Amino acid sequence: MSLPEHVTIREVCLRDGLQIEAPIPLAAKLALLEAVVATGVREVEATAFVSPSKVPALADAEALAAELPRFRDTHGVEFSALVAGPGGANRAVAAGMDSIEYVVSASDAHSRANVGRSTAESTDLIADIARIAHDGGATIEVIVATAWDCPFDGPTDPARVVDIATAAVEIGADRIAIADTIGTTTPRRVTTLVELLRPVVGDLPFGAHFHNTRGAGLASAYAAVTAGIRRLDSSAGGLGGCPFAPGATGNIATEDLVYLLRDSGIGTDVDLQAAIRAADVARDVVGHDLPSALLRAGDRVLGRVRP
Amino acid sequence: MSLPEHVTIREVCLRDGLQIEAPIPLAAKLALLEAVVATGVREVEATAFVSPSKVPALADAEALAAELPRFRDTHGVEFSALVAGPGGANRAVAAGMDSIEYVVSASDAHSRANVGRSTAESTDLIADIARIAHDGGATIEVIVATAWDCPFDGPTDPARVVDIATAAVEIGADRIAIADTIGTTTPRRVTTLVELLRPVVGDLPFGAHFHNTRGAGLASAYAAVTAGIRRLDSSAGGLGGCPFAPGATGNIATEDLVYLLRDSGIGTDVDLQAAIRAADVARDVVGHDLPSALLRAGDRVLGRVRP
């Protein structure tokens, strides 16, 4: 097992975390963003440029983007935004995003449910999105959704993930990522897929996105790191979920991930105590409890109390 | 990475799960036990023979033990009980337990807080407990508690764990296990300790016990399995906790563990749907929510719904 010295965490609470919540005011998002950038994290998924009617919680994408330059300047944070097509990509670059995340679902049924296009049709659009991003001075990351399972089509044929990643690399994507969209994968399946994709992705930054819906999110994240992944998405407090899995827990919690990586000798840019404070803010702005373990238990503090 | 075809799960909800709960009636424990044995699990930690005043929830140990023969006969389940010294061991064999779990804390401060003896004094008692167990027709498992961290003494020197395991093997213990008593360990630390102990434990059955207090329980369990552990404790619904970590989540949940292992190609004796039903019963008998992920999200069911 070869573990890296460093893994890059991207904080996704402002997009994946909030997207199925009831809309919250821009001021609340900015309070959360303040807490997030105070953790030291260097990459933040700020919003999505998608249909405001489909995702009302992110309808303020342009307004939020207008607030980002001051955080970028003071904290050196890179801001990304998710898009579903060329229209969103144009909006994102116009709004000054540093990086565009373009999602391609590896399963046709999820792709059609999500964006009304087949996987092949979405793959064909990578070139357009990449051109829009690059012309606008942004980088493009292609995220393969339903990389392991689709709620409609069943387990995803890994060859479909390889095909999308291959197309993305050939077209000139700057980063590749794989996403466990519905929170079903487990460590061994992660290892298998990452090892299959590594030769395809080559030297490009290669990330993964896990949900803790069935408790295996952190185990999957660690398996991904042992298999060569060096970028992980996580969300303050574990905020977030999937519209297809009501009641399920959300993204892996940033503070839980940082704890696990730190005590495995793997550095991140994130300060653990600041991450717990950000999780606390996340809980406040959405007004309900969050699944984070560290938010309850805190860091391990040993030898300070006596029996 | 070499993964086994099978891992033995021991269900601990009746002991570790219930020990810090308010006492529940024997009939409720038997209802839970019915649900537990229906999962197919072959080993159940049924109770502890300890001071009723210190652990009132398990004060009915003899009464519960008297009910076990019918479950043993119909389901072929092996029942174990935890003991803290020779007195408890005598009670346990008199009550007909199949296996005695004797806990030795690797840290002096935890050992003294728990049983009023130093680690060395507790280690010296292994021979007595083993003789009582073997004379009574039971097997003995030595469990090293605070194997990674002690809330009072800080991180545990792995040499202390090795010393206890070495003594246990020399004295003739039938099984060795290591326990993350306060739920602080992480996968890499697990791998390191298991690899250090493997030559000591040799061919004896070697188990591990994790709590999910800081979210890393399943990741640690999977790391343990990849490092050679073939026995894992878990608790229906994730019932259980540690008196030293109030508000923290408890043992790793049996159903979450079974899901992770099954989808990693590792068999257990436990049926997942039956395990989810047992978790539901566990929630009912204690009357509060439990941290299990599968209890909320259920098994992955793919391809049955259409968008």
Automatic annotation (TrEMBL), chains A, B:
GO terms for molecular function: hydroxymethylglutaryl-CoA lyase activity; metal ion binding. The keyword Lyase applies. Pfam families: HMGL-like. CDD domains: DRE_TIM_HMGL. One of its GO terms (biological process) is L-leucine catabolic process. InterPro entries: Aldolase_TIM, HMGL, PYR_CT. Belongs to the HMG-CoA lyase family. It comes from the Bacteria. Keywords: Lyase, Metal-binding. Residues 7-276 form the Pyruvate carboxyltransferase domain. This is Hydroxymethylglutaryl-CoA lyase. The keyword GTP-binding does not apply.
